[in-house]
Amino acid sequence: MTGGDRVFAAVDLGATSGRVITGRVGPGTLELTEAHRFANTPVRLPDGLRWDVPALYQGMLDGLRAAGRGGPVASVGVDTWAVDYGLLDADGSLLGLPFHYRDARNDQAAERLPEGCGPQELYAVSGLQHLPFNTVFQLLAHRGTAQWGTARTLLLMPDLLVHWLTGAVGAERTNASTTGLFDARSGDWSDALIGRLGLPRSLFPPLREPGDPAGTLLPHVAEFTGLPAATPVTTVASHDTASAVVAVPARERDFAYVSCGTWSLAGLELDAPVLSEESRAANFTNERGVNGTVRYLRNIMGMWLLEECRRVWEREGAAPDLGGLLADAAAAHPFAAVIDPDDVSFLAPGDMPARIDAYLRRTGQSPPRAPGGYVRCVLESLALAHRRTLRQAAGLAGRDPARIHLVGGGSRNELLCQWTADASGLPVTAGPAEATALGNILVQARAHGLLDGLAAMRRLVSRTQELRHYEPRGDMRAWDRAEARLKG
After folding, report:
1. CA-to-CA distance for 435 and 440, rounded, in angstroms?
2. Nearest 5°: phi and psi at 231?
3. Which candidate, 451, 439, 438, places its Cα nearest to that of 27?
4. Tens digit of pLDDT for each residue in 458-477?
5. pTM, to two decimals
6. Would you call 168 exposed, middle or buried from its count of C-beta atoms within 10 A (0-12, 13-18, 19+)?
7. Which CATH number belongs to the domain containing residue 104 in this structure?
C-alpha cells in the first residue's frame, strides 16, 4: 500500500435513482460523501418503455461537477444495472433511447431462439439464469428493426456512459456476463454462441477487467465538470451487484449474501461456475465477479414490490411514511398471506396491490385489508425467498454458509433483516447500505495502489462501516408452514 488518502468518484445508477458518491480511501480510512442524487425516470414512448439516458448522463455530469468542488478526484468509476444496452451507428452515435428491461417487447423473445440454441444449450455455455429480459432475448426482439440494420457497436449501459466520458469503447466483464452471450468457463464472449444465434460478432467490443484503465475525460466533459482533462476513468465492477459483493464485509470463507434493493440478488461467491442440469432447472445464474470469482445467485423480485405498492397508495393519498408502514407491518398478523415474489404478474410496472390481491385469490388466500398487511406480506415473502434461494444455492454448490450478509438499501429495513435471520436460521449481518458505491470506490482504490486485494477491501469495509447483527429467533416451524403454503 502507498501512503496518503485519495478521493474517488463513484457514479452509481440504479433502476429508480442515480447518485455520484465520493469516497476517501487511505490506511484505515473509508469515508463516503454523497455529492449528488437524481431520479431515474423511464419514459414510455409509442414504441415502448425506454431509459432517459441523456437525463442520466446529465445527472452524472452534474454529480461529477459537485464532486470536484470538494477537491482533487483521483479517478471516476461507473456502475449501473445489468442487461440493457445502447446501439451505436458507424459514426458512434446512439441509435435511439435504450429499451427498459421491463418493456413488453421481451415477453415472447425467448420463443425466437433458433434450433440448437434452446435453454439447455444456452445454459451449458453462459450459465445464466433464464429471465425474459436477458440481453440475448432483447437482441432477438431488436433484430430486424431499422435500428438493428444500422447498428455497428453494442454497449451495455455502464459501457455507454464510460464511452461518453472518454470516447473509449469496451465491455466490462462482470456486466458482459449477464448478457447470455458470455462463456462462463473462459470468461470471454462466446463466439460460438453468438454465431449460432446469428448475431454479428462485430457488435461486441473487447472485454475489460475491473481495475483496467478505461481512458481519461474528454475535453468537453472536463470543461463542464471542472475536473482536469487528465482525470482517469477506471473500469470497475460495472454491474451494480458485482460492485456490491465486493463490499460484503465477510470474514468467513463460506458466506451467503443478499444484495437487496429493487431486486434481491441472493447467492454465494464461488471459484468456478456450477453448470449442472440441476442448477439450470433451479434457475441459478453464474455471473462474473472481481478477481475471476463467480457470483452464483438467483434474481428475486425485491423491494420493487413494496415501492410499487407505495406509488399506488401515494397516488391515492392513503399511504403513511415508510416508518409508519413498517410499524403497521410489525403489528399485523404473521403469515396472513404469502406470495411468490417472482410470479410473472409482478414484473411490469402497475397497480401492485391489485396484483397481489389477484395472486392471493388465485391461491386461495385472503387479501390484506390495510397497507400494513401488504407490507408484512411482501417482507415475509421476501424473507422466505431469501431462505429458499440460499438453501438451494448451498445444496447445488456443495457449500455450507455460516452467515448471511445483507447489503444495499434493504439492509436499512430491520424487519426484513430480522425475518431473513428467523426464516433461514442463520445470523444476518446487515450493511453497508451503500455497498455498490463502496465496491466501485474500492476497485478504483486498488487500481491506484491503496489496497492489495479483495480480502483487504472487505476488512476495510468491516472496520469502517456501520453494521448491524441479527440472530435467528423463535420457532422456524411457522416459516416452514408458510413455505408449504407456497408449494401447495
Report:
1. 9
2. -60, 120
3. 451
4. 999 999 999 999 999 988 99
5. 0.94
6. middle
7. 3.30.420.40
Closest CA to 85 of 46, 131, 51: 51
Does some domain include residue 443?
A: no
Alpha-carbon gap, residue 136 to 479, rounded angstroms: 37
Domain boundary among 234, 266, 288: 234
Neighbour-count burial of 31, counting CB atoms closer than 10 A to its CB (0-12 exposed, 13-18 middle, 19+ buried): middle
pLDDT at residue number 319? 66
Active site residue 240: yes
pLDDT tens per residue across span 89-135: 999 999 999 999 999 998 888 888 888 888 999 999 999 999 899 99
Residues 253 and 199 in one domain: no
| Distance (Å, whole) CA 380 – CA 51 | 31
CA–CA gap between residue 372 and residue 319 (Å, rounded):
10
CA 247/CA 208 separation, integer angstroms: 20
> In this structure, what C-alpha cell is assigned to residue 477?
416451524
- Would you say 405 and 260 are in contact if contact means Cβ atoms under 8 Å apart? no
Task: Name the active-site residue from 240, 254, 328, 480.
Answer: 240
Residues 323 and 185 in one domain: no
Residue-wise burial string across 81-91, b where 16 or more C-beta atoms lie within 10 A, e elsewhere: bbbbbbbbeee
In a domain, 436, yes or no: no
Residue 305, in any domain of the structure: yes
Same domain, 103 and 218: yes
**How many domains does the structure of the chain reveal?**
2
Residue that terminates a domain, selected from 205, 234, 263:
234
* Dist. CA 468–CA 23, nearest whole Å: 22
**62, 186: one domain:** yes
Q: Are strands 263-270 and 43-45 parallel, antiparallel or unpaired?
A: unpaired
**Domain containing residue 92:** 6-234
Helix or strand (DSSP H, E) at 215: strand 213-216
For 346, which DSSP code? G
